[in-house]
Design a protein that fits this description.
245 residues, mainly alpha, 7 helices, 70% helix, 0% strand, globular
């Protein structure tokens, strides 16, 4: 029997922050442009207004998505205590998504937090995947949802790790680890690079340029292959539909 997800703020933070961060970066990609700067170079507009707008939009989208999945029966997590925590987590993710490249210290702190969250999810995931790999065991739709959430967690993790490595190289006046560019372009390119790498597409226009970056990308490629193989193997066993879930 599957254990219910807890609704405390910390548990929602661990389970959903990286997903919320993913949607926040997607929102940023929609209203940013090289020809039309996302924000002024300094002041309250840059440090408060834009992060707050992005955070609010992100929270509303996450809550709407959660309600839609609840109405479709894909999740049973739609009640006041959960949505309050989810709104707070989504707002925090939307706010920090703007800050990730504003300062070096914010890049490192946000990266550390995302890596920690992903490490906790990896531990939870391997406990779950060991159950699904047992003979004659079929996954449920909820299991596939958790698998997809974990996959997004890793995409975000590798994206921020690559951004951090790039920042470290720049701080030591070394060649850029990746040709991501800077500012908002670097965020979007890092996210896009992780998506095409972990899904084994790899167009080749964004590349690792140093030895450390190549090692990280090698691990990212192997991780993507492993997870896709596991997902395909689990799905081919069949999906168990349980109306009581």
């Amino acid at each position: 029997m599957q254990k219910p997800r807890l609704t405390g703020f910390y548990n929602v933070l661990i389970q959903d922050f990286n997903l919320c961060f993913f949607t926040a970066l997607f929102i940023l990609s929609l209203y940013s442009s090289r020809n039309r700067p996302l924000y002024f170079d300094h002041g309250w507009f840059l440090y408060f207004l834009i992060p707050s707008i992005n955070a609010l939009l992100n929270s509303l989208i996450i809550l709407a998505l959660n309600r839609y999945l609840f109405q479709k029966g894909y999740t049973k997590k739609y009640h006041t205590s959960y949505t309050t925590s989810l709104f707070a987590v989504a707002f925090l993710a939307g706010f920090l998504s703007v800050y990730i490249t504003l300062f070096d210290w914010s890049t490192y702190l946000i990266s550390t937090a995302i890596i920690y969250i992903s490490a906790v999810n990896i531990r939870i995931f391997f406990g779950k995947i060991s159950e699904l790999l047992q003979p004659d065991t079929m996954a449920t739709p909820n299991d596939l949802s958790e698998f997809a959430n974990f996959f997004i967690n890793l995409i975000i993790t590798f994206a921020v790790v690559n951004l951090s490595v790039n920042t470290i190289h720049q701080n030591f006046n070394a060649p850029d680890a990746f040709n991501f560019g800077s500012g908002i372009d670097a965020i979007i390119n890092a996210l896009y690079f992780s998506i095409i790498t972990m899904t084994t597409v790899g167009y080749g226009h964004l590349i690792p340029q140093t030895a450390i970056a190549k090692i990280i990308v090698g691990v990212e490629c192997l991780t993507g292959y492993l997870l896709l193989g596991l997902m395909i193997g689990i799905i081919t066993r069949g999906i168990k539909i349980n109306k009581e879930q």
